Amino acid sequence: MSAWGATILDATGHRLSSDEKTFLAEADPFGFILFARNIDTPDQVRALCDEMRSAVGRNAPITIDQEGGRVQRLRAPTWREWMPPQTLIERTGADAAEALYLQYRIIASELYALGIDSNCAPLVDVAGPETHAFLRDRCYGTDAGIVSLLGRAVADGLLDGGVLPVLKHIPGHGRAQADSHLALPVVSASRAELDASDFAPFKALRDLPMGMTAHLVYDAIDPQPATTSPVIMRLIRDQIGYDGLIMTDDITMKALSGTLPEITRASLDAGCDVVLCCNASLHDRRTVADAAGRLTESGQRRAEAALAARKAPDEVDIPALEATLASMIAGQAHV
Question: Would you call 249 a catalytic residue per the annotation?
Answer without folding.
Answer: yes
